From TrEMBL:
Keywords: DNA-binding, Transcription, Transcription regulation. Residues 22-90 form the HTH gntR-type domain. It comes from the Bacteria. This is GntR family transcriptional regulator. The keyword DNA-binding applies. The lineage of its organism: Bacteria, Pseudomonadati, Pseudomonadota, Alphaproteobacteria, Hyphomicrobiales.
Length: 257
């Protein structure tokens, strides 16, 4: 939406309508929010400066400044030093069931999105004591530690840190594809898992990788996956962007004992 269209759209929303209630800056903020939510103002769109928008709408500059302040506080817009004010980059929220065990790649493909992975680190070494305990391994049984950035349609969504016994994969297996596909292809298909979710905030390094601000909310998901014979095949810690994921579960009221 160009500047002329934006001004026309804002004026059409009755900013000066005497029937409208509330301060003018609130009405302006609501009108801009509506344009963002309706997709008329796209993510990354540059907004007019305070003076330009005030003159175009014939309102006080303080009105525009206060409206922008409210939108900045809500996260709808962002200020970029030396560049101006922009509609915030938003990701489409993803709803994922807590009751279905599936890979990130399969989840994204089922939504018509293209999954990808960027390897952050990849090492093979003996298991740490905690890993040895969780995976049921001896110290002479090496593990693959695979840290990856998971993306959908090029948008970073999660940092995944997986630990898998090499005996289930082989040292050369898995790069940017599905870990579960690689395990299944080797005859070690995960069939059940225990997941634990914790609300956390992102440290500066993780936030930078996920392209969000340091301290942004995230979901830490720890998962232990097992084979049909109960052997542990994977231990993963993943940080999912809090602005991108909703994890849901269907609950039923059981009969009283």
């Amino acid at each position: 939406m160009d500047r002329t269209s934006l001004i026309a759209e804002l004026n059409s929303r009755g900013l000066r309508d005497e029937a409208m209630t509330g301060p003018l800056y609130k009405r302006l903020a609501q009108a801009l929010t509506g344009l963002i939510q309706e997709g008329l103002l796209k993510s990354g769109t540059a907004l007019p400066g305070e003076r330009d928008l005030a003159e175009a709408l014939q309102v006080g500059r303080v009105t525009v400044r206060t409206a922008y302040r409210d939108l900045l506080a809500s996260g709808a817009i962002e200020s970029r030093h030396g560049s101006g004010t922009f509609v915030s980059e938003r990701v489409e929220r993803i709803e994922q069931s807590l009751w279905r065990l599936s890979s990130f790649s399969a989840d994204m493909r089922s939504r018509g999105r293209e999954p990808a992975a960027k390897i952050l680190s990849r090492t093979v070494s003996p298991p740490a004591p905690e890993e040895s305990f969780l995976l049921g391994l001896g110290q002479d049984e090496p593990v693959l530690r695979l840290d990856r950035l998971r993306l959908a349609d090029g948008q970073p969504l999660a940092i995944e840190r997986a630990v898998v016994p090499i005996k289930f994969l082989g040292e050369d297996a898995v790069s940017e594809g599905s870990l579960y596909d690689a395990l299944t292809g080797n005859g070690f298909k995960p069939v059940r898992a225990l997941q634990r979710l914790t609300a956390v905030t992102l440290d500066p390094t993780s936030a930078s990788i996920l392209n969000v601000k340091a301290g942004a909310p995230a979901l830490l998901i720890e998962r232990i996956s097992r084979l049909e014979d109960q052997r542990v095949v994977e231990y993963t810690r993943s940080h999912y962007r809090g602005d991108a994921y909703d994890f849901v579960a269907e609950l039923r009221i059981g009969d009283d004992p």
